[in-house]
User: Which sequence fits this backbone?
């Protein structure tokens, strides 16, 4: 097991990019290798040591043996865990854009808030965010119609707009509330939102399931009521309580399911 | 600067040089027959030497490309190359950034590319993009097939007026030649309709595709434009369309070629692969390549380029807007549409050509059938209708398929859907292209078809556009299936690309960036008629266009540097 600890000593208002600093590339790096590394900052590169104190302990045979700990305010560090396939990254602070984007395996834990594009086009592995995430969590890249296809994202706080756009697999759990258009264009996968949702979940969804345990303010017209179910089993997940089931989005001949907590959404009964 | 390329194996089909070991000499941007002792010697002993490539049909500049880049940001992620001291950063795969377009053609050893569809209204934009594309000279073709004024002249059977209009509009748009796309069909799209076949009139016009193609071909020959009529016939991509294709080609058979042009054809049919489908629906679709190839073999007034499918995820973009909508309905991905006022309409969708998909396998096989069934390589040009059937960077891969029937068999047996075997004759075609054929279909033939006297060959006086590839044709068996990847690799990164006597690529890397020239045709001898025509059409122009005529014209600073082809139509 190899533990790499990067402790922030100088905050850069121009974002640092960490796409090369993932277990897959650094598992055999020594402390000297880190000290010689130039990290991309804006359109140039500067020594990593300008920004971080670096500690390296132990040895690793491969990326799966790596534990990276990022201590401090990483709210201007982008692409943490980008395309990682194995190992573990822990961020003790906030994270900037694209945390866990295109992730293939391993785990990423953010003990703070994360910016937009968490887990974009994720294919596997797990991401846990203790705080909130901004827009486009678990979505596709802009313009791309193939989004998150696997893995698990757990957000304990709230999520922003267009959660899981074009999702085609995997699972997303949001503990708090969620803004507009969750699960838009989704074709497969499972989304569970613990809190309230503003508007329009599941727009143009073709398949997959969205569960909303809080109150939904505005439902899209393209969803047909299919009745009330008690303690439903949704894609292998056993829920408790009464849920109103909708099918949609019929505008695109969709066969997705949207489940709303009946108690919280009595206005729709 | 003088150069001498020493001891290369030269293929120059225009001058019947097929694999001779000889020197190529360059002085002041031209091929010459001797140079002084100061000439710099480039030792290319036993390496493949050809004129630089000429592309007869691609979509590389203009509003469709820009729309594509806006609409497919995900495509920009592919093909990323960091900037160097010489080059700018590259992005994009099917719709590369402007500079990447120039670098990539240049790396393949190409020197001239035709931008195949310029709506005159957007010609300024097209020329702006050409200014941003380095290292290749560009010959843009203006769209005329659905232009209201053209339809009006055709309806009135006023060929004199139409000729003056074409002459004026080539000057205004600074274009090289004429292109027709789905004649009357894109106009019908303004009403949410399409036309079917060449005798189906555009709504409200009572003019048919046949009449438009005939009239414009007559005008093309009347004016003596260097390139012939360049046609994308009706019914593109529809099963059972091959009779429409043959009908279109046959409709102009009797039209006499202008005696002053170097080309042999009066009609060039582009991306023929998309126009050679038999059957009645996608259920029973099959190849229609044989009857079309047979027609071309018997008729010298026709040339074509193939539009070979390359099995990539690419972008289709065409002024055949109704067809794009049909394709969107089939693919279910995303679709963009663009209306060009009185001139045409364009559509755009992403598309994934998969070897495992029956229709795509069929399209792939039909393209190769055309290459192999058309006997005279001077009548067929290698294109992918880039990016419609695949991006142009796949040309070397297509060469490898043409040069090895073993490779094709390998693909038919293991890689592509069985429709390619069962619904086409590809499996029975064992013809292979040699280097001379490759030089013909990528250089000599397209240059001749475009009417470019100084390109596509290595004769004295030709532009010093030369490509050298790091392969020894005499010690290389291109027919071996296992060598296909070598051909693709080598032909994709020229050892040298020389443009107008300057080395722009060395060992597959861009070493110099030069501005591309805008080629345009200036028809003289029609000034009086042009003036009258402009006066006549101005009321309609002012009524329907959203811009003023004063702002319509492409000004000279948009085409710097330019090559003007002066045509004396009075001759």
Assistant:
């Amino acid at each position: 097991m190899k533990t790499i600890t990067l402790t922030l000593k100088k905050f850069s208002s121009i974002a640092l990019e960490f796409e090369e600093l993932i277990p897959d590339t650094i598992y055999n790096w020594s402390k000297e290798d880190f000290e010689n590394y130039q990290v991309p900052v804006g359109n140039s590169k500067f020594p990593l040591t300008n920004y971080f104190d670096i500690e390296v302990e132990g040895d690793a045979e491969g990326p799966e043996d790596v534990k990276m700990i990022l201590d401090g305010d990483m709210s201007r560090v982008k692409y943490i865990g980008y395309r990682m396939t194995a190992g573990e990254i822990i961020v003790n602070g906030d994270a900037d854009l694209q945390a866990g984007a295109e992730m293939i395996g391993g785990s990423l834990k953010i003990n703070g808030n994360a910016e937009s594009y968490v887990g974009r086009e994720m294919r596997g592995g797990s991401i846990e965010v203790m705080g909130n995430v901004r827009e486009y969590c678990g979505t596709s890249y802009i313009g791309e119609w193939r989004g998150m296809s696997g893995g698990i994202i757990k957000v304990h706080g709230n999520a922003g707009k267009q959660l899981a756009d074009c999702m085609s697999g995997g699972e997303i759990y949001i503990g708090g509330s969620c803004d507009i258009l969750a699960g838009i264009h989704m074709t497969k996968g499972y989304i569970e939102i613990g809190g309230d949702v503003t508007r329009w979940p599941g727009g143009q969804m073709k398949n997959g399931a969205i569960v909303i345990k809080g109150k939904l303010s505005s439902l899209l017209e393209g969803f047909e009521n299919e009745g009330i179910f008690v303690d439903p089993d949704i894609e292998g997940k056993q829920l408790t309580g009464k849920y109103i089931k909708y099918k949609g989005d019929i505008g695109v001949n969709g066969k997705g399911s949207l489940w709303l907590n009946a108690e919280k959404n009595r206005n729709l009964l | 600067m003088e150069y001498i390329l020493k001891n290369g194996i030269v293929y120059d089909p225009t001058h019947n040089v097929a694999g001779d070991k000889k020197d190529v000499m360059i002085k002041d941007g031209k091929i010459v027959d001797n140079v002084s002792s100061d000439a710099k010697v480039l030792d290319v002993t036993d390496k493949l030497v050809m004129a630089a490539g000429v592309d007869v049909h691609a979509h590389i500049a203009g509003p469709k490309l820009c729309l594509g880049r806006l609409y497919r940001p995900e495509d920009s992620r592919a093909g990323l190359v960091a900037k160097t001291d010489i080059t700018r950063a590259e992005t994009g795969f099917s719709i590369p950034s402007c500079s990447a377009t120039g670098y990539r053609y240049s790396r393949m050893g190409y020197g001239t590319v035709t931008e195949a569809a310029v709506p005159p209204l957007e010609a300024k934009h097209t020329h702006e993009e050409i200014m941003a594309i380095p290292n290749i000279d560009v010959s843009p073709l203006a769209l005329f097939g659905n232009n209201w004024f053209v339809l009006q002249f055709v309806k009135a059977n006023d060929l004199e007026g139409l000729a003056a209009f074409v002459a004026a509009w080539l000057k205004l748009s600074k274009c090289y030649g004429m292109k027709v796309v789905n004649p009357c069909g894109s106009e019908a799209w303004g009403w949410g309709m399409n036309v079917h076949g060449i005798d189906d009139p555009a709504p409200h016009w009572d003019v048919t595709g046949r009449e438009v193609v005939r009239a414009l071909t007559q005008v093309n020959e009347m004016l003596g434009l260097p390139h012939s009529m360049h046609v994308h016939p009706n019914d593109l991509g529809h099963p059972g369309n091959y009779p429409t294709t043959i009908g279109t080609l046959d409709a102009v058979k009797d039209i006499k070629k202008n005696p002053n042009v170097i080309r042999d054809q009066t009609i060039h049919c582009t991306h023929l692969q998309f126009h050679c489908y038999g059957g009645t629906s996608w259920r029973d679709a099959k190849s229609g390549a044989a009857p079309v190839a047979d027609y071309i073999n018997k008729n010298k007034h026709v040339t074509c380029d193939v539009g070979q499918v390359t099995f990539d995820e690419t972008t289709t973009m065409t002024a055949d807007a109704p067809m794009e909508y049909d394709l969107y309905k089939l693919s279910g991905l995303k679709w963009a549409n663009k209306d060009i006022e009185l001139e045409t309409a364009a559509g755009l969708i992403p598309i994934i050509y998969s070897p495992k998909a029956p229709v795509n396998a069929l399209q792939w096989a039909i393209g190769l059938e055309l290459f192999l069934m058309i006997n005279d390589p001077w009548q067929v040009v290698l294109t992918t209708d880039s990016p419609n059937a695949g991006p142009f960077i796949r040309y070397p891969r297509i060469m490898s398929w043409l040069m090895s029937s073993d490779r094709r068999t390998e693909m038919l047996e293991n890689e592509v859907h069985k429709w390619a075997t069962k619904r086409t004759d590809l499996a029975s075609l064992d013809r292979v292209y040699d280097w001379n054929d490759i030089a013909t279909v990528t250089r000599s033939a397209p240059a001749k078809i475009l009417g470019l006297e100084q390109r596509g060959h290595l004769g004295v006086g030709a532009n010093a556009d030369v490509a050298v590839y790091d392969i020894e044709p005499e010690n290389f068996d291109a027919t071996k299936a296992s060598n296909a990847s070598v051909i693709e690799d080598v032909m994709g990164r020229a050892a040298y690309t020389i443009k107008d006597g300057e080395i722009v690529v060395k060992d597959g890397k861009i070493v110099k960036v030069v501005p591309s020239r805008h080629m345009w045709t200036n028809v003289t001898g029609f000034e009086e008629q042009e003036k009258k025509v402009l006066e006549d059409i101005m009321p309609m122009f002012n009524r329907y266009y959203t811009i003023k005529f004063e702002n319509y014209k492409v000004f000279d600073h948009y085409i710097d540097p330019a090559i003007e082809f002066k045509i004396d139509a009075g001759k």
